[in-house]
Specification:
By secondary structure, this protein is of the alpha+beta class. It has one domain. It contains 8 helices and 4 strands; from the N terminus they run ααααβααβαββα. It has a 4-stranded mixed β-sheet. Helix 4 packs across helix 6. The radius of gyration is 16 Å and the shape is globular.
């Protein structure tokens, strides 16, 4: 039972929720009911935030978005705009969460094979450029769910 006396939703019921509606505002969303799927509260938070940014980019006709993992000296970095600052995660929390839901890709990565795997870590594909900028070109969330 949940705190309000109702039975908790099963994972399939949770996954049918309108995730886009959950990420429509600036607050950081957290759905504890996704934890059995993602494996941790940090992975749930990161997954919803990646989906928010990816949706934002897609609405602007972009096929990817970029974000710094942590504060740095890069000329495009703006204070407070890294993943770790935005989410309040330690390095370990961020890396562990990303490892649960993401796959780092390279030019040699067979992206179609990763996406076709329907594994949880295929939800978020990402790569880091030579200039140390981390890009998220797409999300496979809907096909994994």
């Amino acid at each position: 039972m949940s705190d309000n006396g109702s039975a908790p939703l099963s994972v399939p019921q949770v996954l049918t929720l309108d995730l886009l509606a959950l990420i429509s505002d600036e607050s950081i969303q957290y759905l504890p009911k996704l934890n059995p799927f993602t494996g941790s509260k940090e992975a749930t938070i990161l997954l919803l935030r990646v989906l928010k940014w990816w949706t934002w980019a897609k609405a602007r006709g972009q096929t990817r978005f970029w974000k710094f993992v942590a504060p740095c000296d890069h000329p495009n970095y703006k204070r407070g705009d890294s993943w770790r600052e935005e989410l309040g995660f330690t390095r370990h929390e961020f890396e562990t969460a990303l490892g649960k839901i993401g796959t780092r890709i390279t030019q040699a990565t067979d992206k179609d094979a990763v996406l076709a795997s329907c594994e949880l870590n295929a939800c978020v594909l990402y790569y880091t450029s030579a200039k140390r900028v981390t890009y998220t070109p797409s999300t496979n969330l809907l096909s994994v769910l």
